[in-house]
Specification:
The complex is a heterodimer of chains A (257) and B (648).
Chain A lengths: L8 E6 H14 L5 E3 L1 H5 L21 E2 L5 E3 L5 E3 L4 E13 L20 E12 L9 E12 L2 E2 L8 E5 L2 E8 L4 H24 L3 E5 L9 E6 L11 E3 L2 E11 L1
Parallel strand pairs in A: 2-3
Antiparallel strand pairs in A: 1-15, 2-6, 4-5, 6-7, 7-8, 8-11, 9-10, 10-12, 13-15, 14-15
Chain B lengths: L8 E6 H14 L5 E3 L18 H5 L6 E2 L5 E2 L11 E2 L6 E2 L3 E14 L18 E13 L11 E17 L4 E14 L4 H16 L7 E4 L18 E7 L10 E3 L2 E12 L10 E4 L7 H11 L27 E2 L14 E6 H13 L2 E12 L2 E14 L2 E4 L5 E20 L3 E5 L3 E5 L9 E6 L4 E2 L1 E15 L8 H6 L4 E14 L3 E2 L2 H17 L8 H7 L3 H8 L6 H12 L2 H15 L3 E5 L1 E4 L12 E3 L1 E8 L3 E8 L3
Helix pairs in contact in B: 4-5
Classes of the chains: A alpha+beta (257), B alpha+beta (648).
Chain lengths: 257, 648
């Protein structure tokens, strides 16, 4: 069956491309993924997880320096002084996996393998605190892994020549935090995060969803073209479709002279 | 060395007592240690760890948890990136996730140096002058289930917090003693991975050690128990009993954390605010020095025992139940058995410097009063002499003494006679005289119901007597007589009929010296008899009256010849009143009874440490703590009371 059997335009992206882009971004823009106090920023070797960074980037640009407030409002305890500590927080991994699952090993709590038409996300986190008394920070490090399974639906249509508005319908399957013990604490946190995400998505759905304005440019051809998602039909059960390690989109075009 | 060498008051609380006290609070006020969503408010089977409850909690339908309301909405409007092509709904009022949660304190414990608590390795061994706490938590969370499965279980987990701390104490000059912990170490256990728990512990430790981040916990010692201040009466709001922390240079640590106890030495200042104080003199009294004025002290004491009456212990034969307190409705029977003492060390030690003890003893002394009326008929040389007295007295002045043998006493105590009306009646055999030209003229011949002569004497300013009392402190357990069979302690407290512990001075010796009647009374009697005779001879002709008076009826004749009375009537009256009318014996008995029945201190059993809370519906039950094994000892320096917190 031809790729355009159900739409004028077919576009797809493989999860390896997105993962590669994420890796590239982490490699060339480490300060977007590594945060720490002034001590850690000056000594990135103290980071809990040594980042993989392009050799051309100076070490001083590896870590985004975060300055904590000197005091916080402790409510009934009054104003509390924040101690001077070394700390870091890192995003050590960002991975996406379109079904079928072959990039991310899902934890058992998320019932692997990844179901059809689902996207798995994995965010690796590392963090740590040090007492701030040594010239080179020494941190107590730990790492957690956040796994997220979502589905996506997109719809939208607009008059020819007008911007199209896409509605995105994410569907949270589950969230898991690996590395945290005891089980009851991990389960409680997972329930809280999952319920929070589901509540948030339902709220967004009930209030118009996520809308993305797209304004295609076809200045060269002097015609008016407006793309919109191809309707779901028996031969096209999912649009976008998450399958074969790809995110596939099927787009129809309205064209007017 | 005395416990009060370094302060007027010494307090020591043993860790076992605090731990028992905490358990009493947890059993009786579960809402103070269990926090949850409303669905768990009264559903004990849903809690992660079923709490141990006092039966009254469920009987009175008290809440099991304090309901914490999660916010209805979250404001997330600042989360999404600001991109004109990304359109999201207003995220400022996103509903909070529908979850049920629960946090329970399942166990709590305190350990004063030397340590016996198993501390995590990072905290090491409990250092000198430090204390350790542990707090076990149980928590859980679940999705709010549909109504069809309301009992869906939670994901529960447990954590334990350990805290090591020293302590400093300050007083604020307003009656409050503030104890401030000095953080020594914090350790949370039960969470992994190790780096996470190490980071959390480091953060909390460093936060706690920042100056000013740990608040002091204050306790207003003048509010309850130890030092009472008048809340009613003319001195209400005017009296300040102010504890100050002892700063004796010989005291290495104050507070001291040692011997499994938390020890504190206080000095006490009693201040009376300037103003019109009907009961006392304004001023400042250092209790360690001179005693407070009676009136002020009396009111302090009255406040401590407000509304209390004390019955008479088994009355000796012929005793007169005449003390002011004892004549009120008897409430407590102090003769019954004392509750069994649990094993182990004493949980609370309070030692009070001698000067303060003297004041309390003085107050007990000052509460003594004695009222009596009596009649006596004496046959004397064929005549009858009638004695009727109506007296009211109390004790005043005297010197309070304490000995190393454990006794306390009053010497040279004076009796102040508030009322001493003595009426002498004379029934004299009929006397007849032949008067020239008038024949026989007879006088007298009266009866006890209608004596010939009545001599009312107001003797209150003419009597002197001193008393001496020596006793040893003792403990009594007073069973409230109003309690009905089967009544529980909680019911008794609710109806104001709790039992009491009392610290008494058991009189080993009560001595009342003979009542000395001033010799000026002789003149009084002469004048009174002369006046009475004038009345008797009033019926005789005017010219015969001097003759009658001169021959028969002068007072000396009546007293010494006709009635055979001694020359010094004052001594004779003293003997008649004191011995023949048993006034000395009655007074001795009454004094003994008074000290047996009027405590130096009294404490409710069980004691209410948290009153009923009516701000919620249904009201929360009061937190009651049984007191056990109360002991008392005294020496020349101090009085020491020790006791234990009873088991559940």
């Amino acid at each position: 069956m031809a790729l355009t059997s159900f739409a004028n335009v077919f576009a797809s992206i493989d999860d390896s491309v997105i993962d590669g882009l994420a890796h590239k971004l982490m490699f060339e823009r480490p300060a977007l993924f590594n945060y720490g106090d002034a001590g850690v920023a000056a000594h990135p070797e103290a980071l809990c997880r040594a980042p993989s960074v392009d050799a051309s980037i100076p070490r001083s640009a590896w870590v985004k320096k975060v300055i904590l407030p000197a005091t916080v409002d402790g409510k009934q305890l009054g104003t509390l002084t924040v101690p001077a500590l070394n700390f870091c927080a890192q995003i050590t991994a960002v991975e996406i996996d379109f079904s079928p699952s072959d990039v991310i090993t899902l934890p058992p709590e998320l019932n692997p393998p990844l179901p059809g038409q689902r996207v798995a996300l994995h965010v690796g986190l590392a963090a740590g605190l040090g007492d701030g008394t040594t010239p080179t920070p020494s941190l107590h490090c730990f790492s957690l892994d956040l796994f997220l399974v979502v589905g996506i639906q997109v719809e939208g249509q607009a008059p020819i020549g007008q911007p199209i508005t896409l509605r995105v319908h994410p569907a949270v399957g589950n969230i898991e935090i690996a590395g945290l013990t005891p089980d009851g604490l991990r389960d409680s946190l997972r329930i809280l995060l999952t319920t929070f995400a589901q509540t948030l998505i339902k709220y967004i759905e009930d209030h118009g969803g996520i809308r993305i304005k797209a304004q295609p440019k076809f200045d060269q051809v002097k015609i008016k073209i407006n793309p919109f998602p191809a309707p779901v039909v028996p031969g096209l059960p999912n649009n976008p479709a998450v399958e074969q390690n790809q995110l596939k989109t099927f787009v129809d075009l309205n064209i007017a002279p | 060395m005395g416990l009060t060498d370094y302060g007027d008051i010494y307090l020591a609380i043993h860790e076992t007592g605090i731990n028992l006290l905490l358990k009493h609070v947890m059993r009786q006020r579960p809402g103070l240690v269990n926090f949850a969503s409303s669905v768990f408010a009264n559903n004990i089977k849903l809690l992660c760890t079923p709490p141990e409850l006092d039966p009254a909690v469920t009987e009175q339908h008290n809440r099991l948890v304090s309901v914490l309301q999660l916010p209805a909405t979250l404001d997330l409007h600042s989360l999404p990136p600001n991109n004109p092509n990304l359109i999201l709904p207003d995220l400022s009022r996103v509903p909070f996730p529908a979850v049920d949660f629960l946090v329970q304190v399942t166990d709590v414990g305190v350990d004063f140096y030397p340590g016996t608590m198993d501390l995590p390795a990072d905290l090491g061994q409990l250092p000198l002058q430090m204390m350790a706490f542990h707090l076990s938590l149980s928590a859980g969370l679940r999705n709010t289930p549909p109504p069809t499965i309301p009992d869906a279980p939670l994901s529960c987990f447990g954590l334990t917090l350990y805290l090591v701390a020293g302590a400093t104490a300050t007083t604020d000059g307003q009656g409050r003693v503030n104890v401030k912990p000095i953080p020594g170490g914090f350790e949370l256990t039960g969470i992994g991975p190790n780096g996470l728990i190490d980071s959390v512990n480091l953060l909390v430790n460093r936060f706690a050690k920042q100056p000013g981040n740990v608040p002091a916990a204050g306790y207003l010692v003048t509010q309850k128990g130890l030092l009472s201040v008048p809340s009613s009466g003319p001195n209400a709001g005017r009296v300040q009993v102010i504890p100050t922390l002892s700063t004796s240079p010989n005291l290495a640590h104050n507070p001291a954390i040692e011997d499994d106890e938390f020890k504190l030495w206080l000095n006490v200042i009693t201040k009376l605010q300037p103003g019109q104080i009907p009961l006392g003199e304004p001023g400042t009294i250092n209790v360690a020095g001179t005693a407070a004025p009676d009136a002020l002290a009396s009111q302090l004491f009255s406040e401590a025992l407000a509304g209390e009456t004390f019955s008479v212990a088994p009355a000796p034969a012929g005793a007169l139940a005449v003390t002011a307190a004892a004549t009120a409705q008897p409430t407590y029977d102090w003769t019954g058995p004392i509750p069994d003492a649990p094993p182990g060390p004493d949980h609370l030690t309070v030692s009070i410097a001698g000067s303060w003890v003297d004041q309390q003893f003085e107050l007990v002394k000052n509460h003594f009063s004695f009222a009596s009326t009596k009649h006596l008929e004496v046959d004397q040389a064929g005549a009858k002499i009638l004695f009727d007295y109506d007296i009211l007295l109390h004790l005043t002045s005297g010197k309070i003494t304490r000995t190393d043998t454990g006794s306390i006493g009053l010497s040279d105590g004076d009796i102040a006679w508030d009322r001493m009306n003595l009426q002498l009646g004379l029934c004299i055999p009929q006397q007849c005289v032949n008067l020239p030209g008038l024949g026989q003229h007879c006088v007298f011949g009266g009866t006890p119901a209608n004596p010939d002569i009545r001599i009312p004497l107001d003797l209150k300013n003419y009597l002197r007597s001193e008393i001496e009392v020596a006793g040893t402190p003792s403990i009594g357990y007073g069973k409230n007589k109003a309690r009905t069979p089967g009544m529980t302690d909680r019911q008794a407290v609710a109806s104001g009929e709790a039992n009491k512990w009392g610290v008494f001075v058991h009189p080993d010796k009560v001595h009342v010296e003979p009542i000395d009647v001033d010799d000026t009374v002789n003149n009084l009697i002469d004048q009174a008899v002369a006046a009475a005779l004038a009345q008797v001879t009033a019926n005789a002709p005017a010219w015969a009256r001097p003759l009658l008076m001169g021959i028969l009826f002068n007072s000396k004749y009546i007293a010494q010849t006709l009635l055979g009375l001694p020359d010094q009537l004052n001594g004779w009256i003293s003997e008649k009143i004191g011995v023949d009318m048993n006034l000395i014996a009655d007074l001795t008995t009454a004094l003994a009874q008074h000290f047996l029945t009027f405590p130096l201190f009294a404490l409710d059993d069980p004691t209410t440490i948290m009153p009923e809370d009516t701000s919620v519906n249904p009201p929360l039950i009061p937190v009651l703590v049984p007191l056990r094994d109360l002991k008392v000892k005294i020496d020349h320096q101090e009085l020491t009371v020790q006791g234990k917190v009873g088991p559940n």
